[in-house]
Amino acid sequence: MIDDILKETRRHMDKTIDSLRHDFSAIRTGRASPALLDRISVEYYGTQTPLNQLALISVAEARVLTIKPYDRSSMGAIEKAIQKSDLGINPSNDGQLIRLVLPQLTEQRRRDLVKQAQKRIEEAKVALRNIRRDAIKDLQDAEKEDLITEDDLEDGKDQIQKLTDKVTEQIEAIGKAKEAEIMEV
Questions:
Q1: What total of structural domains would you count in the chain?
Q2: Domain containing residue 64: CATH number
Q3: Do 110 and 97 sit in the same domain of this protein?
Q4: Domain that holds residue 58
Q5: Per-residue tens of pLDDT for the chain, all 185 residues
Q6: Strand duo 98-101 + 64-69: pairing
Q7: In this structure, which long-range contacts are made by residues 121-128, counting pairs with CB atoms below 8 Å and at least 24 apart in sequence?
């Protein structure tokens, strides 16, 4: 019973880490990466469609992304979606391709991005605490139903806390690496 709760808790915590990594992939660091455009959706024939389903996105140079729409008639909609996004990049359109030139990040912009990263780290930690709370509640419910003993309950709480501490350290390490990447000139 305790092992099942621990496995489920670990699975939820792993999802939290994956979500944080996905969030971090969308934070611009001055280098071109197709992942920067993962969150952008385009209104295409009345439907919100992810950009990566409408176009081929590639890295042309270190700070240049190119977007080649599969359907040229969607170029205007793609440009509008990029302009509306929080990327802060103006697309340039030559009729065939849309180019996104990532400007060099200023010191202030780097600090703002670090703050965004820290906010996402804190959100991940809150999610971990909620997962821990739910797991402990499950253990307490099992103890009330006489499925586990009081000693098992305490052991389970300790194991859950150790798991939470371990995953928190992982999240902080991921955060430090992202902050270093953002501040790198």
A1: 2
A2: 3.30.1360.40
A3: no
A4: 34-101
A5: 888 999 999 999 999 999 999 888 777 666 777 888 888 899 988 899 998 899 999 998 888 899 999 988 889 899 999 888 877 788 998 888 999 888 787 888 888 889 989 999 999 999 999 999 999 999 999 999 988 888 999 999 999 999 999 999 999 999 999 998 888 76
A6: antiparallel
A7: 121/20, 121/171, 121/172, 121/174, 121/175, 124/16, 124/17, 124/19, 124/20, 124/171, 125/168, 125/171, 127/16, 127/19, 128/13, 128/16, 128/164, 128/167, 128/168, 128/171
Of 101, 131, 156, which residue sits at a domain end? 101
Domain limit, last residue, from 83, 101, 119: 101
Query: Please, are residues 149 and 15 in contact by the beta-carbon 8 Å criterion?
Result: no
Alpha-carbon separation of residue 128 from 75, 119, 133 (angstroms): 41, 14, 9
- State whether 69 and 110 are in the same domain: no
- Same-domain pairing of 20 and 38: no
